[in-house]
C-alpha cells in the first residue's frame, strides 16, 4: 500500500508540475474547425520532423486574397508514415491545391486537411486516423 501511495503521489506531482504550455500542446483551439480554405500555390519548404510536420506554401486562397507565405501544420512524421506518406510526398516546388482549417486569428496558416498535387492529380489526406482505419495510403 505504501508503494502505491508513493507512486500516486509521484504521478500527481509530475502532472501538476508540467508547464501549462506543455499541457496545452495538442490543443486545436487555434484553428477554426467550422471553416475550410483552399489554397493554390507552390510548396516552399517541408520540415519533416517531430513533433509535427510543417509545410510552407507560397500561395493564395482560390476565392481571392493576397498571395503570401502560409504555414501549415500536420501531424507527426510517424503518423503520416503509417498512412503511406514519405519525406518526398510533397517537395519544394510542387504546385498544389491545399485545403486547410485556418487559424482563428486570421494569420496565414492553418491545419492541413488535404492536398492535390496539380502535376499528377495525386491527393494526399491529412486525416491520419480515418485513413489508417480505412487502410488508405496516399
Element layout with pairings:
Layout: H1 2-17, H2 20-23, E1 37-47, E2 54-61, E3 68-73, H3 77-82, E4 95-102, E5 109-117, E6 123-125, H4 128-134
Parallel strand pairs: 3-5
Antiparallel strand pairs: 1-2, 1-4, 2-3, 4-5, 5-6
Describe this structure in words.
- By secondary structure, this protein is an alpha+beta fold.
- It is built from four helices and six strands.
- It has helices at residues 2-17, 20-23, 77-82, 128-134, and strands spanning 37-47, 54-61, 68-73, 95-102, 109-117, 123-125.
- Strands 1-2-3-5-4 form a five-stranded mixed β-barrel.
- Strand 2 (54-61) and strand 3 form a beta hairpin.
What structural keywords apply?
five-stranded mixed β-barrel; OB fold (Dihydrolipoamide Acetyltransferase, E2P); 138 residues; 24% helix; single chain; alpha+beta
Count of helix runs: 4
Shape: globular
Q: What's the Cα radius of gyration?
A: 19 Å
Biggest sheet: strands, sense, closure? 5 strands, mixed, barrel
* Element-by-element helix/strand order: HHEEEHEEEH
* CATH fold label: OB fold (Dihydrolipoamide Acetyltransferase, E2P)
Helix content: 10-25%
Low-confidence stretches: 4-24
CATH class category name: Mainly Beta
State the total count of DSSP E strands: 6
What share of residues are in beta strands?
25-35%
Assign the CATH architecture. Beta Barrel
End-to-end C-alpha gap = 51 Å
For the largest sheet, list the strands in their spatial order. Answer: 1-2-3-5-4
Coarse structural class: alpha+beta
Mean pLDDT: 83
What's the number of domains?
1
